[in-house]
Protein backbone atom coordinates (compact mmCIF):
# COMPACT_ATOMS: atom_id res chain seq x y z
CA UNK A 1 0.00 0.00 0.00
CA UNK A 2 1.49 3.35 -1.09
CA UNK A 3 1.72 6.43 1.11
CA UNK A 4 -1.27 8.11 -0.57
CA UNK A 5 -3.35 4.94 -0.31
CA UNK A 6 -2.50 4.61 3.39
CA UNK A 7 -3.45 8.24 4.06
CA UNK A 8 -6.74 7.80 2.20
CA UNK A 9 -7.41 4.60 4.15
CA UNK A 10 -6.79 6.29 7.51
CA UNK A 11 -8.98 9.26 6.56
CA UNK A 12 -12.01 7.04 5.98
CA UNK A 13 -14.91 8.10 8.20
CA UNK A 14 -15.43 5.80 11.16
CA UNK A 15 -18.41 5.77 13.53
CA UNK A 16 -17.83 7.51 16.85
CA UNK A 17 -19.10 5.25 19.66
CA UNK A 18 -17.72 6.89 22.84
CA UNK A 19 -21.15 8.06 23.96
CA UNK A 20 -24.66 6.91 24.81
CA UNK A 21 -26.01 3.48 23.99
CA UNK A 22 -23.20 2.76 21.51
CA UNK A 23 -20.64 3.15 24.30
CA UNK A 24 -22.64 0.78 26.51
CA UNK A 25 -22.82 -1.97 23.88
CA UNK A 26 -19.18 -1.60 22.87
CA UNK A 27 -18.15 -2.02 26.51
CA UNK A 28 -20.38 -5.10 26.89
CA UNK A 29 -19.08 -6.74 23.70
CA UNK A 30 -15.42 -6.06 24.53
CA UNK A 31 -15.86 -7.27 28.12
CA UNK A 32 -17.55 -10.54 27.09
CA UNK A 33 -15.00 -11.18 24.32
CA UNK A 34 -12.15 -10.56 26.75
CA UNK A 35 -13.60 -12.86 29.43
CA UNK A 36 -14.12 -15.65 26.88
CA UNK A 37 -10.65 -15.15 25.40
CA UNK A 38 -8.87 -15.06 28.77
CA UNK A 39 -10.78 -17.82 30.51
CA UNK A 40 -11.31 -20.38 27.77
CA UNK A 41 -8.42 -19.69 25.40
CA UNK A 42 -5.82 -18.97 28.12
CA UNK A 43 -3.49 -17.28 25.60
CA UNK A 44 -0.69 -16.69 28.12
CA UNK A 45 1.01 -18.80 30.77
CA UNK A 46 -1.31 -19.60 33.68
CA UNK A 47 0.60 -20.49 36.83
CA UNK A 48 -2.13 -21.45 39.33
CA UNK A 49 0.03 -21.60 42.53
CA UNK A 50 0.57 -17.81 42.45
CA UNK A 51 -3.15 -17.00 42.00
CA UNK A 52 -4.85 -15.25 44.92
CA UNK A 53 -8.31 -16.12 43.58
CA UNK A 54 -10.07 -18.41 41.12
CA UNK A 55 -8.87 -17.96 37.53
CA UNK A 56 -12.39 -17.03 36.39
CA UNK A 57 -12.36 -13.92 38.58
CA UNK A 58 -8.85 -13.09 37.45
CA UNK A 59 -10.18 -13.20 33.87
CA UNK A 60 -13.07 -10.92 34.88
CA UNK A 61 -10.70 -8.37 36.47
CA UNK A 62 -8.38 -8.39 33.45
CA UNK A 63 -11.39 -7.96 31.14
CA UNK A 64 -12.85 -5.09 33.17
CA UNK A 65 -9.63 -3.04 33.14
CA UNK A 66 -9.92 -1.85 29.50
CA UNK A 67 -13.55 -0.90 30.12
CA UNK A 68 -12.40 1.54 32.81
CA UNK A 69 -10.11 3.30 30.33
CA UNK A 70 -12.74 3.28 27.56
CA UNK A 71 -15.19 5.03 29.92
CA UNK A 72 -12.51 7.53 31.02
CA UNK A 73 -11.82 8.25 27.34
CA UNK A 74 -15.55 8.84 26.78
CA UNK A 75 -15.56 11.34 29.68
CA UNK A 76 -12.67 13.24 28.08
CA UNK A 77 -14.59 13.42 24.79
CA UNK A 78 -17.66 14.65 26.68
CA UNK A 79 -15.64 17.45 28.27
CA UNK A 80 -13.94 18.34 24.96
CA UNK A 81 -16.46 17.37 22.20
CA UNK A 82 -14.37 18.99 19.44
CA UNK A 83 -11.87 16.14 19.79
CA UNK A 84 -14.49 13.82 18.31
CA UNK A 85 -15.21 15.89 15.20
CA UNK A 86 -14.58 14.26 11.81
CA UNK A 87 -13.82 10.89 13.41
CA UNK A 88 -11.94 8.55 11.09
CA UNK A 89 -9.95 5.31 11.05
CA UNK A 90 -6.68 7.09 11.82
CA UNK A 91 -8.13 8.62 14.99
CA UNK A 92 -9.72 5.28 15.89
CA UNK A 93 -6.38 3.43 15.64
CA UNK A 94 -4.64 6.15 17.67
CA UNK A 95 -7.21 6.09 20.48
CA UNK A 96 -7.16 2.27 20.55
CA UNK A 97 -3.37 2.32 20.91
CA UNK A 98 -3.59 4.82 23.79
CA UNK A 99 -6.31 2.78 25.53
CA UNK A 100 -4.28 -0.43 25.12
CA UNK A 101 -1.15 1.24 26.48
CA UNK A 102 -3.02 2.55 29.53
CA UNK A 103 -4.74 -0.80 30.00
CA UNK A 104 -1.37 -2.59 29.99
CA UNK A 105 -0.08 -0.19 32.65
CA UNK A 106 -3.29 -0.75 34.62
CA UNK A 107 -2.86 -4.53 34.41
CA UNK A 108 0.63 -4.12 35.84
CA UNK A 109 -0.57 -1.92 38.71
CA UNK A 110 -3.17 -4.47 39.87
CA UNK A 111 -0.83 -7.47 39.85
CA UNK A 112 -0.52 -7.43 43.65
CA UNK A 113 -4.31 -7.86 43.91
CA UNK A 114 -4.28 -10.94 41.68
CA UNK A 115 -0.91 -12.65 41.98
CA UNK A 116 1.23 -13.69 44.90
CA UNK A 117 4.54 -13.07 43.18
CA UNK A 118 7.54 -11.25 44.76
CA UNK A 119 8.52 -9.90 41.32
CA UNK A 120 5.19 -8.19 40.60
CA UNK A 121 6.83 -4.75 40.52
CA UNK A 122 9.61 -5.66 38.11
CA UNK A 123 10.28 -4.14 34.69
CA UNK A 124 9.85 -7.61 33.25
CA UNK A 125 6.19 -7.77 34.24
CA UNK A 126 5.65 -4.09 33.37
CA UNK A 127 6.59 -4.67 29.73
CA UNK A 128 4.98 -8.12 29.66
CA UNK A 129 1.59 -6.73 30.69
CA UNK A 130 1.78 -3.96 28.06
CA UNK A 131 2.89 -6.32 25.28
CA UNK A 132 0.27 -8.96 26.14
CA UNK A 133 -2.48 -6.33 26.30
CA UNK A 134 -1.48 -4.85 22.93
CA UNK A 135 -1.37 -8.29 21.30
CA UNK A 136 -4.88 -9.19 22.49
CA UNK A 137 -6.17 -5.70 21.72
CA UNK A 138 -4.89 -5.85 18.14
CA UNK A 139 -6.66 -9.17 17.63
CA UNK A 140 -9.93 -7.66 18.90
CA UNK A 141 -9.45 -4.51 16.79
CA UNK A 142 -8.79 -6.61 13.67
CA UNK A 143 -12.11 -8.37 14.26
CA UNK A 144 -14.35 -5.52 15.45
CA UNK A 145 -13.26 -2.54 13.33
CA UNK A 146 -14.03 -4.05 9.88
CA UNK A 147 -17.31 -5.55 11.14
CA UNK A 148 -18.48 -2.26 12.64
CA UNK A 149 -17.30 -0.22 9.65
CA UNK A 150 -19.01 -2.44 7.06
CA UNK A 151 -22.18 -2.84 9.12
CA UNK A 152 -22.83 0.88 9.45
CA UNK A 153 -21.65 1.71 5.95
CA UNK A 154 -24.02 -0.79 4.35
CA UNK A 155 -26.87 0.32 6.60
CA UNK A 156 -26.44 4.01 5.77
CA UNK A 157 -25.86 3.36 2.06
CA UNK A 158 -29.08 1.35 1.94
CA UNK A 159 -31.02 4.06 3.76
CA UNK A 160 -29.55 6.80 1.55
CA UNK A 161 -30.63 4.96 -1.60
CA UNK A 162 -34.25 5.04 -0.39
CA UNK A 163 -34.38 8.81 0.12
CA UNK A 164 -36.20 10.96 -2.41
CA UNK A 165 -33.76 13.63 -3.57
CA UNK A 166 -35.91 15.11 -6.33
CA UNK A 167 -35.86 18.39 -4.44
CA UNK A 168 -34.44 20.89 -6.86
CA UNK A 169 -35.46 24.51 -6.16
CA UNK A 170 -39.08 25.11 -7.06
CA UNK A 171 -41.71 27.78 -6.70
CA UNK A 172 -42.21 26.98 -3.01
CA UNK A 173 -38.80 28.47 -2.17
CA UNK A 174 -39.82 31.77 -3.74
CA UNK A 175 -42.61 32.24 -1.21
CA UNK A 176 -40.20 33.18 1.56
CA UNK A 177 -39.16 36.83 1.82
CA UNK A 178 -35.60 38.07 2.05
CA UNK A 179 -34.46 37.95 5.68
CA UNK A 180 -32.40 40.43 7.67
CA UNK A 181 -29.73 38.48 9.56
CA UNK A 182 -28.25 40.04 12.72
CA UNK A 183 -24.64 39.19 13.59
CA UNK A 184 -22.33 39.95 16.50
CA UNK A 185 -21.16 43.06 14.70
CA UNK A 186 -23.74 45.59 13.52
CA UNK A 187 -21.65 46.38 10.46
CA UNK A 188 -21.61 42.67 9.60
CA UNK A 189 -25.42 42.31 9.40
CA UNK A 190 -26.69 41.14 6.03
CA UNK A 191 -29.77 40.12 4.08
CA UNK A 192 -30.39 36.56 2.97
CA UNK A 193 -32.63 35.23 0.24
CA UNK A 194 -33.61 31.71 1.43
CA UNK A 195 -33.98 30.40 -2.12
CA UNK A 196 -30.37 31.37 -3.00
CA UNK A 197 -28.92 30.02 0.25
CA UNK A 198 -26.86 26.86 -0.39
CA UNK A 199 -25.28 26.02 2.95
CA UNK A 200 -23.44 27.53 5.92
CA UNK A 201 -20.36 26.16 7.62
CA UNK A 202 -19.05 27.06 11.07
CA UNK A 203 -15.39 28.08 11.21
CA UNK A 204 -14.46 28.99 14.79
CA UNK A 205 -16.17 32.28 15.72
CA UNK A 206 -17.24 32.82 12.12
CA UNK A 207 -19.68 31.26 9.67
CA UNK A 208 -19.05 30.83 5.97
CA UNK A 209 -22.33 31.35 4.09
CA UNK A 210 -22.47 29.96 0.54
CA UNK A 211 -25.02 31.38 -1.90
CA UNK A 212 -26.06 30.78 -5.50
CA UNK A 213 -26.46 34.18 -7.14
CA UNK A 214 -27.05 34.41 -10.89
CA UNK A 215 -25.85 30.79 -11.23
CA UNK A 216 -22.55 31.68 -9.54
CA UNK A 217 -21.29 30.46 -6.18
CA UNK A 218 -20.62 33.26 -3.69
CA UNK A 219 -19.25 33.09 -0.16
CA UNK A 220 -19.85 35.44 2.76
CA UNK A 221 -17.84 35.30 5.99
CA UNK A 222 -19.79 36.59 8.97
CA UNK A 223 -19.08 36.79 12.69
CA UNK A 224 -22.04 34.84 14.02
CA UNK A 225 -22.37 31.48 15.84
CA UNK A 226 -24.05 28.90 13.64
CA UNK A 227 -26.57 28.29 16.44
CA UNK A 228 -27.62 31.94 16.18
CA UNK A 229 -27.94 31.71 12.39
CA UNK A 230 -29.99 28.51 12.76
CA UNK A 231 -32.38 30.31 15.12
CA UNK A 232 -32.91 33.15 12.66
CA UNK A 233 -33.63 30.65 9.87
CA UNK A 234 -35.81 28.27 11.90
CA UNK A 235 -39.02 29.20 10.05
CA UNK A 236 -37.58 28.10 6.70
CA UNK A 237 -38.58 24.40 6.46
CA UNK A 238 -36.06 23.45 3.79
CA UNK A 239 -33.06 24.79 5.75
CA UNK A 240 -31.82 22.08 8.10
CA UNK A 241 -28.89 21.64 10.49
CA UNK A 242 -27.30 18.39 9.35
CA UNK A 243 -24.30 18.59 11.66
CA UNK A 244 -23.11 20.74 14.53
CA UNK A 245 -21.13 22.79 11.98
CA UNK A 246 -23.48 22.83 8.96
CA UNK A 247 -26.80 24.33 7.86
CA UNK A 248 -28.07 23.13 4.47
CA UNK A 249 -30.75 24.10 1.98
CA UNK A 250 -32.36 20.72 1.25
CA UNK A 251 -33.93 22.08 -1.93
CA UNK A 252 -30.45 22.23 -3.47
CA UNK A 253 -29.69 18.54 -2.90
CA UNK A 254 -28.30 16.63 -5.84
CA UNK A 255 -27.26 13.35 -4.21
CA UNK A 256 -27.36 11.60 -0.84
CA UNK A 257 -24.80 8.88 -0.12
CA UNK A 258 -24.10 6.86 3.01
CA UNK A 259 -20.90 6.16 4.92
CA UNK A 260 -20.01 4.69 8.31
CA UNK A 261 -20.81 7.92 10.17
CA UNK A 262 -24.08 8.83 8.51
CA UNK A 263 -24.87 10.54 5.19
CA UNK A 264 -22.93 12.74 2.81
CA UNK A 265 -24.84 15.37 0.81
CA UNK A 266 -23.88 16.55 -2.66
CA UNK A 267 -25.30 19.99 -3.41
CA UNK A 268 -25.96 21.46 -6.82
CA UNK A 269 -22.86 23.02 -8.35
CA UNK A 270 -20.65 22.20 -5.36
CA UNK A 271 -17.72 19.75 -5.20
CA UNK A 272 -17.49 19.75 -1.41
CA UNK A 273 -19.80 17.30 0.36
CA UNK A 274 -21.74 18.16 3.50
CA UNK A 275 -22.04 15.60 6.32
CA UNK A 276 -25.17 14.46 8.11
CA UNK A 277 -24.06 13.37 11.55
CA UNK A 278 -25.20 10.10 13.06
CA UNK A 279 -27.28 11.99 15.64
CA UNK A 280 -29.11 13.91 12.91
CA UNK A 281 -30.00 10.98 10.65
CA UNK A 282 -33.52 10.34 11.94
CA UNK A 283 -34.38 14.08 11.98
CA UNK A 284 -32.93 14.46 8.49
CA UNK A 285 -34.97 11.55 7.12
CA UNK A 286 -38.12 12.96 8.71
CA UNK A 287 -37.51 16.42 7.25
CA UNK A 288 -36.86 14.96 3.81
CA UNK A 289 -40.24 13.21 3.91
CA UNK A 290 -41.98 16.44 4.90
CA UNK A 291 -40.62 18.48 2.00
Describe the fold and architecture:
There is one protein chain. The chain has helices at residues 3-10, 20-41, 55-79, 89-109, 111-114, 123-161, 226-232, 281-290, and strands at residues 179-181, 190-192, 197-203, 206-213, 216-222, 239-243, 246-249, 253-258, 263-267, 273-276. It contains 8 helices and 10 strands. The model has no long low-confidence stretch (mean pLDDT 87). The strands form 3 sheets. Strands 5-4-3-7-6 form a 5-stranded antiparallel β-sheet. A 3-stranded antiparallel β-sheet has the order 8-9-10. With 291 residues, the protein is of the alpha+beta class. The two termini are 45 Å apart. The protein folds into 2 domains: 3-154, no CATH class; 171-290, OB fold (Dihydrolipoamide Acetyltransferase, E2P), CATH 2.40.50.
Amino acid sequence: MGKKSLVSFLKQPYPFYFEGRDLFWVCIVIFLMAVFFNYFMQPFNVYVPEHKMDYFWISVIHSATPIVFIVLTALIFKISPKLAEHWNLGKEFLIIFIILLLTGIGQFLIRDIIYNNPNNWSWHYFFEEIINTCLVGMVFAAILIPINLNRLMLKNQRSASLLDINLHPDASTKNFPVLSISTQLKTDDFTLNPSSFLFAKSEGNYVEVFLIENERLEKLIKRIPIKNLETQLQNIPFIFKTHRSYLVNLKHLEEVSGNAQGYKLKLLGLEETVPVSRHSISSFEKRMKEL
